[in-house]
């Protein structure tokens, strides 16, 4: 749904969806905005009233020209209501704000400046709460209060309405933004979250009575079912593939991947179902890296037996599906690493990552055949050097590296993993 948003004419728009709860939620929210925000000609507040049967219309229309009312007779849900607000807004930056928030005591525009000052360049999304979604190994800004550069919606489209009526669209959008090369930033930057009964986040001056609309008597039972459904959708889209590539491995691999020059070429030997590549997909996309993957897609003897018994489906198909799911399109060579080495030009790789046959013979041959493929100043590394389960890896690497470092003095060997 790209290309639906016109050129911005204002500095920022605040978008607030609301479904009834005029007196207990919307009025306190808008009153706090009036109290702590400069209401000027370079901003607007867009209230998306959907399914309201109280006095919301009359109240919003009484607040002045900077307050714009979008009226829908029936309820849209959070996701669709926000999208309608985005399409009707005119700000260069968009602040998504729940109606169950209240700004706390502050100098005027403090909260606006905290959100918008860092929102430039590759910082695409800011907000007072960045949470870790352990079930998919991703961070996300929670959209009860979030500022987003308009250009992200032009590039990525609006919030995905598959999550309607809500819950999960913020996580999805943050992941898509990071994959496109943008950063998400909690403000104040680097501050640790506090467990506060008022749901105030650190020193950001806001109170959030979380999910006050959806947890009321009318919606609560259905809301928990929606959360469960949408978590399943997020898991299907973004959870890393299974595999023995753990959190410390991912951290080290991400560090190594950030050293690869923009537009460089990497080759991974033995990606299996693609967990390691998926864990760095956002960096690969951001740095516009070319990816080569080499695997016979039968794995260890145990895994090969599972494939033969029909307990595992086509591993290559699973790998390709995972690559597509994470926005990657590698060149895939389904063959042994020795065979694939004949197809790769010497001095063409910026990084070669070895995670294939862990036997003494396999590691020896991979280093022998693939070290020449790495260009001057490039990186070569692999998995399980520090692991106790594969002692041959360390033995071969330490022995061969002493021999090859004189022939390839500019080659960098990474032992982080």
Could you walk me through the main structural features you see in this protein, from its secondary elements to its overall organization?
With 417 residues, the chain is of the alpha/beta class. It folds into two domains: 10-238, Spore Coat Polysaccharide Biosynthesis Protein SpsA, Chain A (Alpha-Beta Complex); 247-414, 3-Layer(aba) Sandwich (Rossmann fold). It is built from 15 helices and 17 strands. It has a seven-stranded mixed beta sheet. A six-stranded parallel beta sheet has the order 14-13-12-15-16-17, covered by helices on one side. β7 and β8 form a beta hairpin. α14 runs parallel beside α15 (391-404). 43% of the residues are buried.
Which architecture of the largest domain per CATH?
A: Alpha-Beta Complex
Query: Helix/strand/pairing class, anyone?
Result: alpha/beta
Question: What oligomerization state is this entry in?
Answer: single chain
- Please write the CATH class name of the largest domain: Alpha Beta
Q: How many individual β-strands?
A: 17
Uncertain regions: pLDDT < 50 for 5+ in a row? 305-309
**Order of strands across the main sheet:** 3-2-1-4-9-6-10
What is the CATH superfamily classification of the largest domain? Spore Coat Polysaccharide Biosynthesis Protein SpsA, Chain A
Distance between the termini: 41 Å
Radius of gyration: 26 Å
CATH topology of the largest domain: Spore Coat Polysaccharide Biosynthesis Protein SpsA, Chain A
Q: What would the principal axes of the Cα set say about the shape?
A: elongated
Quick one: biggest sheet?
A: 7 strands, mixed
Strand percentage: 15-25%
